[in-house]
Amino acid sequence: MNELFEKDCQIQEKTIDIQISKSGKDTRSIKLRFVRVVLKTGEIEILATSLLDNERYKVENFKDLYFLRWGIETYYDVLKNNLSLENFT
Asked: Residue 14: is its pLDDT beyond 90?
């Protein structure tokens, strides 16, 4: 998994099984797909997704999706911090 963070990595994605257990009981396995996205700045982002079908959900599309989501994330951050929304229920 760490190889995705290396600068010269040729791997664009990796799917792994993760074991989850509740209090040491009822262990179940879930699959996560990690997608490597290189930003214009050269910074590497690793995105985790449950969209496992790499034919339907191509690696190239995740960079665009990441930027669409980022504007929404920063807007919610501004709202939360400026309005102290964590103090409301």
From this structure: yes
Phi/psi at 7 (nearest 5 deg)? -60, -45
Tokens of 34: 């990690």
The yes-or-no verdict on residue 88 having pLDDT over 60 is no
> Closest Cα partner for 31 from 7, 45, 13, 43?
13
For residue 61, give the H/E element and its range: helix 59-83
8 Å CB contact between 49 and 69: no
> In the chain, what are the domain boundaries?
2-87
CA distance 1 to 46: 10
- Sort residue 42 into left (φ over 0), alpha (ψ -120 to 50) or beta: left
User: Residue-wise over 31-44: b if at least 16 C-beta within 10 A, else e?
Assistant: eebbbbbeeeeeee
